[in-house]
């Protein structure tokens, strides 16, 4: 199951030919509709991605400097409705906020704007100054309805503008955020058009060289653990299959198993964690109350910290003696433990449909791989 | 015994114009690609991305063994110790002779046997995809059958 978490989508103007209107945010308050030609282009790219083997794709809308409730338009909802449904592929919505000097005072990722940010599945921040980088790593990776899940880095700028400090990076990874490497920079094509208008990326031969230097630095500082690799590709011919990308990562001094994880395991746990944003402080499972038939009043013992449900505490205390009932123990707020999200049972999370689709996609791929194996051994 | 070990890369060049339905240019039926062009493009890619030392590491053992214009399938042989450099160079290829392509490595193996099996299976898949596009039934004999037979023979004729 392979993930491409950066499929750039721009508001008005097709994604493959950079044209008019890139600098302005769409001013109209109604949703921006996509013309049939743009839809055709997007469908074609999705076909290509499917052919290359990607099953989970996140559409990425980029915003400059800050999100403003007055001018921000969620273009991805309209897009998703217009695309035909593909079995075996999961679509997600992602918002990227480019942070620079002006955003140091605050860029709208506050409780007041939580409703703006809610429809997106994944949030990413792209810092360009040291101050915003430390902001992104420290304050915004803590679990809350507003966390940023991905810290994307501008890898093609000459001389990465800030030094990747080991302590910051380690805190971010411990909190569960991941760092993103966009492989479009290595291929050298015109990278994400919206990024270049925001002045964040550099194309051509020097962009490629900077990409190798910066990506290598990211791998070194993170020691390969909290990395995801994604597309960020503007023109179609720059897409590459997942195995090829894993090989490119090994050329960055990343071990083979970690390179494989970067495109399979890390994005998966990232998406699970992103679902935790919709819950309170990354608690994923709900306590399930089981009431057995016999009701004997037993002296209340302080077991669960829930004082409102006292009677149920008595009853359930008895049941927990009879059979080990793990459902009652309230899970600890998994603030800094991102791994608990993986082990938690998937059935009681908010986004059931996404989980089901991920499981279906995994099953479908497992089956097709098995079928292919059967056909090849003659 | 110190044997000289190889890696066989099975590469498919995905043509963006056939996958992208909205492109206006037509894919010419006689593709100008052939093994020699691929070798040259690969050599340029290694030199620009990995320098002269990269080419020195890879060049002696790099060999394009087979190329099929209809399915865009290519078999490349490299020495095992440097196959990652060659693989990287293949990935970073963007165009051959002004045609933009997407190289995709389907299979990597140490012996020619499994490469052959994988190549034959891939040819069959591609032909099946062509046939569904033309909406022919499976029993309908068309020129693809000859092509399949011929390419299978060519692939099996490959040797070390």
UniProtKB/TrEMBL annotation, chain A:
GO annotations under biological process?
Answer: tRNA processing
Name of the featured protein: PHP domain-like protein
- Give the domain of life: Eukaryota
Q: Which SUPFAM superfamilies match?
A: PHP domain-like
The biased composition feature labelled Basic residues covers: 369-378
Q: Does the keyword tRNA processing apply?
A: yes
Keywords from UniProt, A to Z, are:
tRNA processing
Q: Name one GO molecular function term.
A: RNA binding
Its main subcellular localisation, reduced to a broad class, is nucleus
GO cellular component, as recorded: nucleolar ribonuclease P complex
- UniProt keyword Hydrolase present: no
- Region annotation Disordered: where it falls in the sequence: 1-34, 301-378
Location within or outside the cell: Nucleus
Q: Where is the composition biased (Polar residues)?
A: 313-326
The protein's organism comes out as Suillus fuscotomentosus
Q: Which InterPro entries match?
A: Pol/histidinol_Pase-like, RNase_P_p30
Q: Which family does it belong to?
A: Belongs to the eukaryotic/archaeal RNase P protein component 3 family.
From TrEMBL, chain B:
Report the Pfam families cross-referenced here: RNase_P_Rpp14 (PF01900)
Report whether Signal shows up as a keyword of the record.
no
Subcellular localization:
Nucleus
Q: What is its EC number?
A: 3.1.26.5
**Per the record, what are the reactions this protein catalyses?**
Endonucleolytic cleavage of RNA, removing 5'-extranucleotides from tRNA precursor
Instruction: Output the superkingdom of the source species.
Output: Eukaryota
- Functional summary from the UniProt entry: Component of ribonuclease P, a protein complex that generates mature tRNA molecules by cleaving their 5'-ends.
Concerning its family, UniProt says:
Belongs to the eukaryotic/archaeal RNase P protein component 2 family.
Predominant localisation class: nucleus
Tell whether Nucleus is among the UniProt keywords.
yes
Matching entries from InterPro entries are given as: Pop5/Rpp14/Rnp2-like, RNase_P/MRP_POP5, Rnp2-like_sf
Its cellular-component GO annotations read: multimeric ribonuclease P complex; nucleolus; ribonuclease MRP complex
Question: Any idea which UniProt keywords this protein has?
Answer: Nucleus, tRNA processing
| Protein's name in the database | Ribonuclease P/MRP protein subunit POP5
Q: Which GO terms describe its biological process?
A: tRNA 5'-leader removal
Q: Which GO terms describe its molecular function?
A: ribonuclease P activity; ribonuclease P RNA binding
